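Lab notebook page, bench 4
Experiment: in silico fold of construct C2
Operator: M.H.
Input chain length: 198 residues
Purpose: comparison with the prior construct
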Amino acid sequence: MALQVKRGLAAAVAAITPVAGEPVWATDTKILYLGDGATAGGVQVGGSGAAVSRVFLVNNFLCPAPGTEWTPTIKGVELAANKTSAKFWIPLDFLKIGDIITTYKIVGDAVKVAGDTVTFDCKLVQVNKADPITTTDITSGGIVQVAADGNFDVAANCDDTTVATDKQYLLECVGTNSNVSTTEHITVIGVEITVTRL
């Protein structure tokens, strides 16, 4: 025996005040409401429906030439001395359509001594379905370049970017090390991505 509850489009549900305990189903939004006898449309069951900000820790790296440029290690990914404009990528494959990327913070360590040069850059990139496939740098999606010795924890407050169909998102990272002391290197342990999710 099937149980059916009062139902209708969200606009129609919002126009009624269900009695206390009466369930109402919005067929277009797939949201269930429960009447309290006073609230128009009832009270949403299972949460407020408001967007929630979440921080995701990401440490999966795509290295095009491991062992010769950026190399995965137990600590993350590392660039040894005497490398110029070496790239790796951090795919953001946990995202859902409709998520809003608001900020990210990349974490790691740069090691250098007097005379050494170390630089590290990172930017948020959108890969677009097209023929041929294209990429778009997200506005304000780049960090301030890391060039000093020591741990770094650098944030980028990119323009809010809504995840869309037929697009992929990743961080593109580029590092350069001199070969003066031969001890200079860069290690990236991961990134903290702040996403607003419904």
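Observations: The radius of gyration is 24 Å. The mean pLDDT is 91.
Next step: discuss at group meeting.
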